[in-house]
């Protein structure tokens, strides 16, 4: 038997076995001992099998390669299995969907052992169609080994009443829907809530913000007594207090945030203060020279902006995809799936719902409502329907919250959000599941706003105010935003290429690209839907990152970056410490680049053909002699 030796090589006597456990905490010299119990605590955390779930669900969870429950799952699942109302606040990507789907499925399976009667036992309400599709797929995955006993239906697509009734004719156990769809089904007697046992509100703080107030009140009046309510949210907002008063009896509130300290450290946040013109230049450099690698989400303010940026990238052969509220629901879902599978790396998303977050936006909305004309004023009322018909947008669209984008390496706020809360939701798309992530935001100083009229938008006027709010909010979370500096001298070599590409993206090109993609996606979504369901391998032909700029003036010389433009030290020399000055539009070295060289007398040189003067400039009309 080998004996332990000390630092001097002398043998050390082993302590008695009966006193070893008691002696460990009383020896301050052994610094490693007190930290061992803390490291061993995760081993004592319950597994999915120990949470009291049905064995078939545990088997499905194992198939999904879930190693152990997250914090929200460990806390919420036992409470939900006991039948308690739960109000849970947890970060995006923390596993909230499984935290309510698993206990609801387990309760239904347990009930069916004693009472096999078929009725709708659970209703899951979500604010967006994309999130409804995500929840429905999660239900299918977790019920893979109990498919005979669990039947779910999704009521979010624009289906006729006849098709909707056929979906509900089989009396599904679980219904996933937006509040508007759910109430339409209840009011038309297609969906019965008489024996409902579970009501789930996912992203509950968004439900009222998306304009479902009246639908929620109608649903609440249709619920039987004793329904268990589970509300999941990323924030504790005043909207939750309203919903809590309508649906919950005495909910257990779970404010879970301490688990994510390690993940927050892996999120690096940068901001760039620059002119509107430099914003396009820096974006071109970042993605063409691959200064940011991996899947990336680019947020812009509106739909036109997303197509302008996509057509701009196409000039340099940078592949990207547009995601907005005008596209059909099937197309949007397919885009997200293909992005998660790694088919393309850049999504340009128009975050049209960002203004609904924050106190400032709420005050502005109240001000608008107070200024609304009375019903007796027919002149003003006649103008409002015209504004609503201007764009056929999907009111149930939302991209900054709820949707499960996987493995996002970077989030770029090409246009700043209108509130600090919306910024938090946007950057929550990256640095998830222990991975590192980058958040980069472009900020237009107030003195630079409106100087590049071709690409200026109104919302950028308040960028600096929003940035100040964001920095204060992130400071409370012990996070900082650092300036991302570029080398001005190295950037200037690329400016003329950027201007050429930007001038080629005209308003006409944007309008035609927007119309063409909408027409193509409608055709693909409706006509070819069944064909691609029967032939899934043909989905490769539905690439959503195809070129849209057919009418845009393409310039082949912009496709490749010549070596003489790159700095001697390589691509990394573009980004360095120090500030970046603002570059005036049109001018370089104090001279206007578009002016012709002047000859004698201040007149421009005449255009010559073959060494002679232009005959059109010297042609004289001779009068006929009378």
From TrEMBL:
It is an enzyme of class 3 (hydrolase). Residues 77-254 form the Helicase ATP-binding domain. It catalyses: ATP + H2O = ADP + phosphate + H(+). Residues 593-606 have a biased composition (Basic residues). CDD domains: DEADc_DDX56, SF2_C_DEAD. A motif (Q motif) lies at residues 46-74. Residues 1-46, 360-397, 586-626 are annotated as: Disordered. Residues 21-34 have a biased composition (Low complexity). Pfam families: DEAD, Helicase_C. Its EC number is 3.6.4.13. InterPro entries: DEAD/DEAH_box_helicase_dom, DEAD_box_RNA_helicase, Helicase_ATP-bd, Helicase_C-like, P-loop_NTPase, RNA_helicase_DEAD_Q_motif. The keyword ATP-binding applies. The keyword Hydrolase applies. Residues 266-492 form the Helicase C-terminal domain. Keywords: ATP-binding, Helicase, Hydrolase, Nucleotide-binding, Nucleus, Ribosome biogenesis, RNA-binding. Residues 46-74 form the DEAD-box RNA helicase Q domain. Its main location: nucleus. It comes from the Eukaryota. It is found in: Nucleus. Residues 1-10 have a biased composition (Basic and acidic residues). SMART domains: DEXDc, HELICc. Belongs to the DEAD box helicase family. DDX56/DBP9 subfamily. PANTHER family: ATP-DEPENDENT RNA HELICASE RHLE-RELATED, DEAD-BOX HELICASE 56. ATP-binding RNA helicase involved in the biogenesis of 60S ribosomal subunits and is required for the normal formation of 25S and 5.8S rRNAs. This is RNA helicase. The lineage of its organism: Eukaryota, Fungi, Dikarya, Ascomycota, Pezizomycotina.
